[in-house]
């Protein structure tokens, strides 16, 4: 793929298989229906039910119809040969609405099966869109567009915003983060939407609870919600990062909510709140929580990135928490980017616990690489089985170094430093700013996708089946997408 600097509507229309007949029915992405076994045989992140995970690549600063930073999302279909470009989506072409300057369509992405048909659906945030006249130098109101997967590709469309919560739009940045998971155990996924600019320090909207689709009024969760009850400051950015996982193994996923600006009692130290919206239960973690390694310090940004995966193969999800502002070397000064660290909390019958908490940095003995005050280790995270042995590996983005670090999971104790892998890319291109894991080529082992948005490049690293404490990822890669750096291609990836 070669992303153009300015994407005209004619090109977008050509990338889709048909024109959009109405805002509610959008054009389908081409599907390989001849071989497709159907949606019931789909794998996670499979939009068309052909048994291969698909990939969405956001370029939120792409120019559309002459409108700068309107944003596009490119869909790639998985296959044994690799990822194949299928369509380019933008507001007004394949998605309801119109492209406008500064909308940042693609500010967040998530795959989930919201209608229970077995095929993944695609949610796209446009966090800087305004409902009405834009306000200069203000954060956007935000909107989320959902395109539904089917055996024939992407089909219907739905649009969500804070008005569905009974609120008036503000500088909410609704859609700045997205996550999907079965939070109520009914077999289809719910959609969680982060609105970190919501008045009072941010919030999260949850759609689809106890329903078969995203219809109906969403549930709004903030720090002031009665069963959450956390101190709230305007700068918390509650909802800036989201992840779902079944941390207690009861068949219903929980939702982890990052608030990297959380400042009680230390400004910008950050925190993570894990909620069960059906049980109305919440637990809070930060680096002042007993058992959590590290110390809560100014600008650590604990909770800036989140990823759930089963690192010890016990059937319960574990949670990796990015702390990219963490200082681990003497050279770091206040407000520097940060050496960076990742805390890992393990699941149990009681949910996430700090009893086995781990703190990973490039200062850990035996880890490849060297911590530097500008690395931002932990800025991006992804989890998945890259070696085909049944437990998940952890991928850590280190964009300041231009690298990703891969730690293998093991059933004997979770993540291990043994055979850890450091993959480097363009140092000044932000390689590692976004990462994703999925069964893109259909093998037993998953594959890794790494973006370098400032270099205009997205790369695929194939996984290899090798049971044991091995990362499984090959060092050689295939370039999936190229585009102008100004568009930030790969700023967000899904799954």
TrEMBL record:
The keyword Cell division does not apply. GO terms for molecular function: hydrolase activity. Residues 1-26 form the signal peptide. Keywords: Glycoprotein, Hydrolase, Repeat, Signal. One of its GO terms (biological process) is cell adhesion. InterPro entries: FG-GAP, Int_alpha_beta-p, Integrin_alpha, Integrin_alpha_N. Gene3D superfamilies: 2.40.128.340, Integrin alpha, N-terminal (2.130.10.130). It holds the Pfam family FG-GAP. SMART domains: Int_alpha (SM00191). The keyword Transmembrane does not apply. GO terms for cellular component: integrin complex. This is FG-GAP repeat protein.
């Amino acid at each position: 793929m070669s992303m153009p600097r300015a994407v005209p509507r004619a090109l977008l229309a050509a990338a889709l298989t048909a024109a959009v007949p109405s805002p509610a029915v959008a054009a389908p992405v081409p599907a390989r229906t001849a071989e497709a076994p159907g949606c019931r045989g789909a794998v996670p992140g499979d939009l068309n039910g052909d048994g291969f995970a698909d990939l969405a690549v956001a370029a939120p600063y792409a120019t559309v119809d002459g409108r700068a930073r309107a944003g596009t999302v490119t869909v790639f279909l998985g296959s044994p040969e690799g990822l194949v470009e299928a369509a380019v989506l933008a507001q007004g072409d394949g998605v309801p609405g119109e492209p406008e300057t500064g909308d940042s369509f693609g500010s967040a992405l998530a795959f989930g099966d919201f209608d229970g048909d077995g095929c993944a659906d695609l949610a796209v945030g446009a966090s800087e869109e305004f409902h009405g006249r834009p306000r200069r130098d203000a954060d956007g109101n935000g909107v989320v567009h959902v395109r539904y997967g089917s055996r024939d590709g992407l089909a219907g469309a739905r649009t969500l915003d804070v008005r569905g919560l009974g609120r008036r739009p503000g500088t909410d940045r609704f859609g700045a983060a997205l996550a999907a998971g079965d939070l109520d155990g009914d077999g289809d996924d719910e959609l969680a939407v982060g609105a970190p600019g919501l008045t009072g320090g941010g919030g999260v909207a949850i759609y689809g609870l106890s329903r078969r689709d995203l219809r109906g009024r969403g549930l709004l969760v903030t720090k002031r919600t009665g069963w959450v009850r956390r101190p709230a400051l305007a700068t918390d950015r509650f909802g800036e990062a989201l992840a779902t996982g079944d941390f207690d193994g009861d068949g219903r996923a929980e939702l982890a909510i990052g608030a990297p600006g959380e400042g009680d009692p230390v400004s910008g130290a950050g925190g993570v709140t894990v909620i069960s919206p059906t049980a109305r239960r919440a637990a809070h973690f930060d680096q002042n929580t007993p058992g959590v390694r590290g110390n809560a310090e100014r600008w650590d940004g604990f909770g800036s990135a989140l990823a759930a995966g089963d690192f010890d193969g016990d059937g319960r999800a574990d949670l990796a928490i990015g702390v990219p502002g963490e200082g681990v070397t003497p050279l770091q000064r206040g407000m520097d980017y940060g050496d960076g660290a990742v805390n890992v909390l393990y699941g149990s019958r009681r949910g996430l616990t700090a009893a086995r908490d781990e703190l990973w940095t490039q200062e850990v003995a035996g880890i490849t690489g060297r911590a530097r005050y500008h690395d931002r280790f932990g800025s991006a995270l992804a989890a998945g089985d890259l070696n085909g042995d049944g437990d998940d590996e952890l991928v850590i983005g280190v964009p300041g170094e231009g690298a990703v670090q891969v730690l293998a999971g093991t059933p004997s104790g979770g993540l291990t430093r043994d055979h850890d892998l450091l993959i480097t890319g363009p140092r000044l291109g932000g390689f590692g700013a976004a990462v994703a894991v999925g069964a893109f080529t259909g093998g037993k082992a998953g594959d890794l996708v790494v973006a370098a948005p400032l270099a205009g490049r997205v790369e695929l690293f194939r996984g290899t089946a090798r049971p044991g404490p091995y990362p499984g990822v090959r060092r050689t890669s295939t370039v999936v997408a190229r585009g102008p750096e100004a568009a930030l291609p790969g700023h967000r990836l899904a799954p």
